[in-house]
Write a structure and sequence with these properties.
The complex is a heterodimer of chains A (129) and B (122). In chain A, 78% of the residues lie in helices and 0% in strands. Chain A is built from five helices and no strands. In chain A, helix 3 packs antiparallel against helix 4. Chain A starts with 9 loop residues before the first helix and ends with a helix. Chain B has 122 residues and is an alpha/beta fold. Helix content of chain B is 46%, strand content 20%. Chain B has five helices and five strands; from the N terminus they run βαβαβαβαβα. Chain B has a five-stranded parallel sheet, with helices on both faces. In chain B, helix 1 links the parallel strand 1 and strand 2. In chain B, helix 2 runs parallel beside helix 3. The longest helix of chain B is centred in the C-terminal third of the chain and has 14 residues. The radius of gyration of chain B is 13 Å and the shape is globular. The chains are: A mainly alpha (129), B alpha/beta (122). At the A-B interface, helix 1 and helix 2 of A face helix 1 of B.
Chain lengths: 129, 122
């Protein structure tokens, strides 16, 4: 249930959320070419982190949960210090697409899309890292 | 009362700046740690609200820089982040933060009370 106290900030949220998703989408192909770039990982991790917090505040729970799981992916990649697999790149690409779709749905229908299946997929990916 | 909000995320910067201004505070903003440090030296705010995860110079580095300046270290800093992990709170406090607020569990009244409490103490 969306808290009406934050309704006035919805437009700002939508704009900034799309901006954070754009950071993921533009940094991902660059990371594919330069897989040891700490700065690119940090840019993407920070984008996911910010989107998570914004979504928590605005009560978009599924987006918040998805971003929480994606943060774990970035943490694991950094800890392993190994180059990310092709599965990682597909995962982040798909995540960006799902999140963008959800943001657009919030814009038009005032509610998130159902991300539970994809969240489950991300959790399975994390288990197998 | 001058508050400097150092926060890289546009949503949170605008959200908290407008909330604080509604309460009558004079709010200045900076979008990263380096800009924040420049603003601190220029404005000498009464209080700093500081995010931790920021590009280039993060909140911990800002705290370290402030603590190394005899004048600036007197300015109270409330650390503002979603890192609600005990080790980050401990680290921030060791570096000079006077308080901590988890911005993912938004409670503006709690933030306002902490700000007013810090002003009274200083």
């Amino acid at each position: 249930m969306h808290n009406k106290n934050f309704t006035s900030y919805k437009e700002l949220y939508l704009k900034v959320a799309l901006g954070n998703i754009h950071i993921l989408q533009t940094n991902l192909p660059m990371l594919k070419k330069n897989q040891h770039s700490f700065e690119l990982y940090e840019n993407m991790h920070r984008a996911v982190h910010n989107l998570k917090t914004e979504s928590i505040l605005m009560k978009y729970a599924q987006l918040a949960v998805l971003c929480t799981e994606l943060e774990k992916v970035f943490v694991q990649i950094k800890l392993s210090q190994a180059p990310p697999s092709s599965t990682f790149f597909t995962l982040i690409k798909d995540a960006s697409s799902h999140m963008k779709q959800s943001i657009r749905h919030i814009e038009s229908e005032n509610k998130e899309t159902n991300l539970s299946d994809f969240i489950h997929h991300v959790k399975n990916y994390i288990k197998n890292i | 009362m001058r508050i400097l909000l150092i926060e890289d995320d546009e949503f949170f910067q605008k959200f908290y700046a407008s909330k604080l201004k509604e309460q009558g505070f004079e709010v200045y903003t900076a979008s990263d740690g380096n800009e924040g440090l420049e603003q601190v030296k220029k404005l000498k705010p009464e209080l700093i609200i500081l995010d931790i995860i920021m590009p280039h110079t993060d909140g911990f580095e800002v705290l370290t820089a402030l603590s190394n300046d005899l004048e600036l270290k007197k300015i109270p800093v409330i650390v503002f982040s979603t890192l609600s992990q005990e080790q980050d709170i401990i680290k921030a406090k060791k570096l000079g933060a006077v308080d901590y607020i988890d911005k993912s569990s938004f409670d503006f009244d709690a933030l306002k009370n902490k700000i007013l409490s810090r002003i009274q103490k200083s």
